[in-house]
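seq/struct pair 1
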Amino acid sequence: MPPGGRLGPRGFLTDEEKASMPKVTGALLKRILGYLKPYWFQFILVFLTILVSAAVGLLPSIITGRIVDEALVGKNLKLLIQLLIAAFVSLTVSQIIGVLENYINAWISSRIVFDMKNQMYHHLQYMPHSFFTTEKQGDIITRMNTDISGVSSVISGTLSSIVSNIAVVVTTLTALFTMSWQLAIVGMAVIPLLVLPTRSVGKTRFALLTERQAKNDEMNQVINETLSVSGAMLVKIFTREESEYDKFVRVNDEMTRISMKEQRSGSWFRVIMGMFTQLGPLLIYFFGGLFIIRRWDPTLTVGTITATIALINRLYRPVESLLNISVDFTRSLALFTRIFDYFDRENTITSPENGEKPVIKDRDIVFSHVKFSYDPEKELLRDIDFTVPGGRMYAIVGPSGSGKSTVVNFIPRLYDVLDGSVRIAGTDVRDFDLKYLREHIGIVTQETYLFNGTIRENLLYAKADATQEEIENACRAASIHEFISNQPKGYDTEVGNRGLKLSGGEKQRISIARMLLKDPDILILDEATSALDSISENAIQEALETMMRGRTSIVIAHRLSTILKADRILVLKDGRICESGTHEELLAVNGVYRELYETQFRKAIEYEKQAAESAG
């Protein structure tokens, strides 16, 4: 995670990270290693290249000592040229090995991310509908993209960095103590001085980074709200352009000032670190010179001092990195823990092994004493008991929030009942082969959703091998063919994100055409004509009636013209079916349906009559 991210700068853990620190267990580590196992051979290659690179990286420093002692002091030009060539070759080889290491690392991390994204997408595709109604869409996208992509930096960054730093430290210390253990100790004495300013300045920078992130979130909020389609329209309607601009300038100014403070603190930190890293070589020069001048160590040479300084400079950065290994390790585990949290979410609605595939055309749908609740403490539906005879059309009405949509969602198993059963053709829907069940059910919902593509692509989603003739027939039945044909690109017209380039009625009619193209045995219309005006609704009502004729259908409707054509009307209130009958029978009861008729349906039918008269 780069400095300045939500997890804080590298070097220490934030309070949030400490509070949510994952518990390191053998099972967790084994699970993580399971993703690395298929690429064990490539990992061995990476580790070998790291070891070779660390060993070869010592040569330029060691050769520098020989250049001073043997070539310069000995005035040997031939040897000087040979040593310079050797140093250049060793540097070149080290760079080439580094490129090879990076390539293998990138390949491994990319393949692991590829595997995990495929696994996550497949897992989420089969999660129950309740998962998507309770989880935030942003969280799902973050886990799917950001978190899994972050695994790449763990593999190619954290893991390889740990191995590389250990290899560099071990090989460098071995070389230092081999040449002069006294100077090695002098050079290492500076290491504690590198740790203290890193911790102190890191906390200061983190406070600034946290403040900047808060302002950045505020700026993003302003941008998202005022530059979206709906937000921009609201700004224009209320002529708030200038005030919104002033708000943006204020937030932008505050964030800029915080960024400048952060950069200044970083500049002073680099100055301090530069002073301390130069202190080590100066101490080695002093003590090395003292040893030579006072003749305390006759074997010590100027070349040895020069090589020691080169090696000690090579040592500081990996040592500092290894001091923070616990932070990197904890953050890596936290990343995997977030990903595994989704993998461990149970799919509660699955297809049974050897699921049944009975003929369901013109067969009864039976709800038997169904109970259901989203919240364990609040029962939504209780004792829902009714039968829709095969080939008949039933309507469900009721106040908003009474559970009408939930009732029909049990049929394709978007939800499962908590008690009781839903049966089709005498078979519990939970015993059906799930794909078979859903293939024979057509649903048109109130909230029409179109993918960001062409009209043709959205229609083919119902039947991938549909011919052009079938597509056009379905669209004619839905009274949308003429509109599509008048578009410059016809059926290849782009609908935009979520179908925003189309009106609500156009989207709804395309959605109905998509359902007609599927040609299912059971139809569920959940406020299917709510986005249409009366003229548009009348234009396709006949098509819907033709489609429902001879099919088992359940309609949730708020318009009386639709309800009147139902073979039977079910009235839902307070989680129960309180009334059942035809329109005339329910009016005579003078109950809930009568109340709905007086408050909603009568106004709707009067409006429809007026619209029809105006059109006439």
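seq/struct pair 2
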Amino acid sequence: MELLSPAKNLETAIAAINCGADAVYIGANDFSARKAAGNSIQDIETLVNYAHLYKAKVYVTLNTILYNNELPIVQKLISNLYNIGVDALIIQDLGILEMDIPPIELHASTQMNNFDLRRIKFFDEIGFKRIVLARETPLERIAKIRKTIKAEIECFIHGALCVSLSGQCYMSAAIGGRSANRGECAQACRLKYDLQNNRGEVLLKDSYLLSLRDLNMTAHISEMLDAGVDSLKIEGRLKDKSYVANITAHYRKLIDNILNGKVRKPSSGRCYFDFTPSPQKVFNRKFTDYFAVAPDKMANFISPKSSGEYLGKVVMARGNNLKIKTDEVISNGDGLCCVVNGAMYGFRVEKIENGIIIANLKEKISTGTDIYRNLDIKFQQKLDNSKTLRKISVSLTIKPAENGFKVIAKDEDNIECEHFTEFQLQKADNKEKALQNIENSLKKCGEKFECEHVVIDFPEPPFIPSSVINEARRNVLQLLEQKRIKAFRPKPSSKPSGNAVYYENEGGYRLNVSNRLAKDFYAKHGCNVTQQAFELQSNTKGLELMTTRYCIRREMGYCPKNKGVMPESWKCDEYRLTSSYRSFALKFDCKECVMRVFDK
């Protein structure tokens, strides 16, 4: 089972690998669904070499729709990424399959709307190596998909949730021209809205009605393993290095404990952590397991900002002084937050005296209020200064050779190399000391390797100065490092090109076709594209902007299928979602169990 971590940049990617990621995904300078997280070819090449040292993989995201004028640029970019040894591309635009590209592995991004089983089977039949499933996919459905398709399955396990089915959200584009399918999402779902019925009555006022909590599948990793998931994916290509290191370390430890050595992980090396990971202590909007099992609370109507970890309740409040009943240690500089008058309020701990928190409070906080910590200053400092290392196990053998000696290195993947050192060997006066000196020198393997076993294969222990052995050890490990990087370069992979017929013979704007090659692709597979992508439409009035399995009525406990009792004011066919800048129509489609938002 692969642990796949996000990377905003080279530094974050290296931190993820050091903390146990089997693979990382990163964006190039353009055509990535996170436009603010671009990276140069040079940095990605450096990352590829570092990852391949540990048998880890690098996937590059080309998961936006493309315009006609961009097709030659993308084709050249793909060739460049292939040439530097990138393991796979995560793509959205099916026009790429009509390009003349090198044999690089392709993964079907979740942006391709991989929720409908018919669509998933189609992508499998044409030959995608891996399909990234929609976040909304329940565990039992994942197990069914696994039995149905040959492709690898990748599923999200942690991080921010898109409220809409991925690739099917056009709200940001409709509001201000910033398309989520072009990596420019303005996160309209994280704004405040009122919900009105068709009589104009306000049902919910001034709340973050579409802002979901963050995904946390910690409790379901064993079930995902049983369901046949091949890759567990952490969201967060806009997150900083400390966040990614912490979450990667958390799931690395969890997966290793579950597997307990019964299944070897796909990458190499052992991690030596200098911190105890905790998802609660870094950015989170409170957690949900979303649709993994029976849906529970999914949204955070109060705030789209980080709540952090729960500390306890206020037991004393007097002016700028607070006392909290908690088992946690609170430090000067910690950031705390709570809900005051229906809104999130945050403040900084200025001082702690005899268990009393002293802060510059601009809001009155009552006893009984729940307090959260969204900045644990000491934990953050530990993450920022972490020296966590990942070391590859190696055995070293030293033996005589003509006019000198050679050191042979063999690592945990059975990759072997040797280095000869010219040296006039002499018998040691103190055999025991000589042997100990050789062993000690060989075992000093630095930050990337650790020596598990030393074999000293001499008829008589020789005297070899430590400086000579150290140089020999450095040389053989450098050769091993280079050999490992070459050994784990990806093998050529055929482009998806099967003759499967698409399950619909006609498709509209929700197929996200924005260039001639994508249109050709669908035509080749029996589907006539009747509308170009939303981003190219001149009139979007009345079009569906968002399709979401999250449901406000269910969140409120009013779901008819769950036998919820719905107030009379909520009983209508169409609702209105309004903000200070725009109004949308909203419909609850109980038959399909989805909520739909329309441009109106």
